[in-house]
Structure formats: C-alpha cells, structure tokens
Design brief:
Layout: E1 2-3, E2 11-12, E3 14-18, E4 21-24, H1 28-37, E5 49-51, E6 71-73, E7 93-95, E8 114-116, E9 136-138
Parallel strand pairs: 5-6, 6-7, 7-8, 8-9
Antiparallel strand pairs: 1-2, 3-4
C-alpha cells in the first residue's frame, strides 16, 4: 500500500505495471481501509455498502469475503468487465456507470435488482435473462438489444 499523492491523507494500493506505470489495485487491505473511512466495518461480512467509485480500478477483485454486501458503487473507474462479484450473493444494487464495460457478465449475482451500466461501451445486452430479480436496468445507448431484436436508437 502506498500513499496516494493526489489526495493528502488517503491510502491507495497500486499495482506496478512496469517502468513509470502504476494501476490502482483493489487489495484486501485497501478494501478494509476504505470501508473504515466510509463509515463501514473492518470485518468484510459486516458491510452492506461498498463505495468504490472514482478510484481508477481496472479490475474487480478480492471481494470474496463481502458476502453480505447489498450495494456497490463502482462509477467512474476503468472497468472493462464486471467479473469478480460472484461471491457478493446478496448484492441488490450495482452502480457501474461511466466505465469501459463492453457487456453484462454471466457471473453477476442473480440477486441484483438494480443495475446501472449507462455510459459504457455496451453493444449487446446479453445475460440479462439470468437476473430474475432485476427490476431497474439503466443502459443508456446500445446498438443491439438482447436476443434477436435490434435497435438503432438509444433507450
């Protein structure tokens, strides 16, 4: 874990990608620290909300212990996929707008009722049918909609 040079007093973990290249990393230590700073608990199973937005994450990882989380805010990161949430079996709300997501992951927990993936790179809405609890879906503009139906406009 290194001190985040952009925000005094905050701790951020970085993964070394090579000379001069560092990527924010969602480590177990960082997750515990983030929960504590946002009014949550150091013990992962006690948290029901995770605030992971605007951190620059490219991957979702180390959430295996967060089995009781109900809402996750992942807005404004660098995510290309939503893999890594399969252990969050009680997840009801996922806010992953403003990322680089290309599709709906087949590993999303089936408990999701609200899914916001607007302002991403989604072109095909597949794997929606496997979310039986889904009540609210925000996608913004897509080129093709699930199954054989197609559309040229934004919905």
């Amino acid at each position: 874990i290194q001190v985040d040079p952009t925000t005094p007093g905050t701790v951020q973990a970085y993964q070394n990608l090579g000379p001069g290249m560092m990527e924010p990393s969602m480590t177990k230590e960082w997750l515990r620290s983030s929960c504590r700073e946002s009014g949550g608990y150091v013990s992962p199973p006690l948290n029901d909300i995770l605030y992971l937005h605007f951190k620059g994450f490219a991957h979702i990882q180390n959430l295996e212990e967060y089995t009781q989380v109900k809402s996750i805010f992942l807005e404004g990161n660098c995510l290309e996929e939503l893999d890594g949430l399969e252990h969050c079996v009680n997840l009801r709300c996922l806010f992953a707008q403003q990322n680089c997501i290309c599709g709906i992951s087949p590993t999303l927990p089936t408990s999701i009722a609200t899914l916001n993936v607007s302002q991403n790179n989604i072109s095909i809405l597949d794997n929606i049918a496997r979310l039986p609890s889904l009540q609210t879906l925000s996608v913004g503009c897509v080129q093709r909609v699930f199954d054989s139906r197609t559309t040229e406009s934004c919905s």
